[in-house]
Amino acid sequence: MSFNIALSGLKAAQKDLDVTANNIANVNTYGFKESRAEFADVFSTSLFSNAKTQNGEGVLTQVVAQQFHQGSLLFTSNALDMAINGNGFFVTTDSPLSRDFTYTRSGAFKLDADNRLVTAGGDFLQGLPVNEDGSVKSVSLSTTAPIQIPDSAGSPSATGAVDMSFNLDSNAKALDPYKFNPLDTTTYTASTSTVIYDSLGNSRIASFYYVKVADPTTTNAAATVPGSGFDALPADPNDATNANSWVMFSTVTDDAGVQKKVDLGNDLLSGGAPDARTFSTGDPVGDPTSHTGMLLQFDSSGSPVASTFPVPKTEPLGTPLNVTITPPPTAPYDGASVVTNGANPDQQFNINMSNLTQFSSAFEITALSQDGQTVGRLTGISIGGDGLIEAKYSNGDAQAISKVALARFPNEQGLTQIGNTSWTPSRESGEALAGEPDSGTFGSIRSGTLEQANVNLTGELVDLIAAQRNFQANSRALEVNNQISQNILQIR
After folding, report:
1. Which of 370, 386, 415 marks a domain boundary?
2. Within this chain, do residues 439 and 467 fall inside the same structural domain, yes or no?
3. Is the separation of the CB atoms in 351 and 327 below 8 Å?
4. For the purposes of burial, counting CB atoms within 10 Å of the CB of 486, is it exposed (0-12), middle (13-18) or buried (19 or more)?
5. Residue 404: pLDDT over 50
6. 102 lies in the same domain as 227
7. CA distances (Å), 368 to each of 159, 194, 197, 262, 333, in order?
8. Helix/strand/coil for 96
């Protein structure tokens, strides 16, 4: 019997050595979780035996328990490297259409030939579907799909709206609007520009110029000459007082990059009467037709003056541009609609300038944006702490692609190891519960970070020495038992 007891001790010591050696071997394996050999004594008794005198029958390996505490984080320069700071597992499958999920803590992901996120072993990282704003559509493992990053931002879209907000300096020097020339910076007070796109994704520069002028004193409704509404300007614009008027001009580059005029108003209404809220001057860019600006006026508080705009007719102003103004009747300076000619002569974009001010401060743009875009190529990926993956493109667009799916289990130590730092559920672990990163009991995602093995190398080396001593002691017990047996056999 003592031989069996010593032999069980040797087997237990060998198992302890094996587990410790495996931990040491995987000290540099990302996402690896150390194991611990747990033993129990063997004790047999019966109805007629005396338990007080029983000595036990050795030792057995009860379980090799995995330890799922957090490993240290290693920072990298790869945005696709991810670590879970807290509870949860990444969800992976071995094929895009598979529903056979495996779970891992190793976040060393990369892109395959189809721009899908995969592990080093080729398993596909699963993500939750999201809306355009990044909110999750459904939190369920059944709705997850392999995360794929589009390499382009889809089809180009024409600019449909430009939003501008700015302050015009009330102390600016009044200029002569008849001398406006976009090529001469001395003929206008301030300017700004933005990029717009047509339906084919071609970019153009839309520029806007602001000329401080003296307040018009009359509106000559019968006048048909350029400059309607400005016929009574003082001889010297600098002599004007209470000048709360500006004229806004605009140009847009054509396909060749040449500035072409854009009329922000029309000289004549359909009935032939001039529009007092527009101003015309000779086009200095090269087109012999007039260059029409739009009158912007402010009250003593610096707010734009409300007025009702007539609806002017649309007049062609030469290739490739023409314009019409269709603002709401009660909100001034909203909705200047620019029509670009060329491949799509019906393309329009609305200019929203409702948030204008004229204060005693420098010209300042407080908002300038447009909604068009050209075809964009993938330039980068960002992954937030909530697992939301956004793709950034060369056209400035950013799209929410997916959100990394996480899973947790009622009993992590019941998971079954399958290699490649992956696990599958078992009866002991319970079913997987899906969730979003950084919500509830789920940990957050750290992009550009890898979780290292949670192995304490110093502790493992000490355990290795202890297991070795244990093995030696059991070997010695076996040797003593053998010597006793030899002595018994030699009795005569």
Report:
1. 370
2. no
3. no
4. exposed
5. yes
6. no
7. 13, 8, 15, 18, 15
8. coil
> Quick count: other Cβ atoms within 10 Å of Cβ 64?
15
Look at residue 257 and tell me whether its pLDDT is greater than 90.
no
* Whether residue 114 is found in the same domain as residue 259: no
Residues 96 and 182 in one domain: no
Out of 46-60, 109-123, 178-192, the most confident range is 109-123
Q: Which two tokens stand for residue 251?
A: 């140009």
Question: Which residues have CB under 8 Å from 282's CB, separation 6+?
Answer: 226, 290, 291
pLDDT at 418 over 80: yes
The β-bridge partners of 245 are: 213, 297
Q: What is the mean pLDDT of the chain?
A: 77
Shared domain for 186 and 134, answered yes or no, is: no
* Whether residue 446 is found in the same domain as residue 464: no
Distance of CA 17 to the CA centre of its chain: 47
Same domain, 246 and 111: no
Flag the least confident range among 322-326, 474-478, 484-488.
322-326
Q: Give pLDDT, residue 245.
A: 79
Summarised one tens digit per residue, pLDDT across range 286-312 is 443 455 677 777 878 888 764 333 223
Q: What range defines the domain where residue 28 resides?
A: 2-69+455-489
Domain count within the chain: 3
Q: Quick check: 352 and 162 in contact, CB under 8 A? A: yes
| Domain CATH for 365 | 2.60.98.20
> Which residues fall within 8 angstroms of residue 239, CB to CB, at 6 or more apart?
214
Rounded to an integer, what distance in angstroms lies between the CA atom of residue 61 and that of residue 40?
6
Q: 262, 265, 260, 243: which is closest to 333 by C-alpha?
A: 265
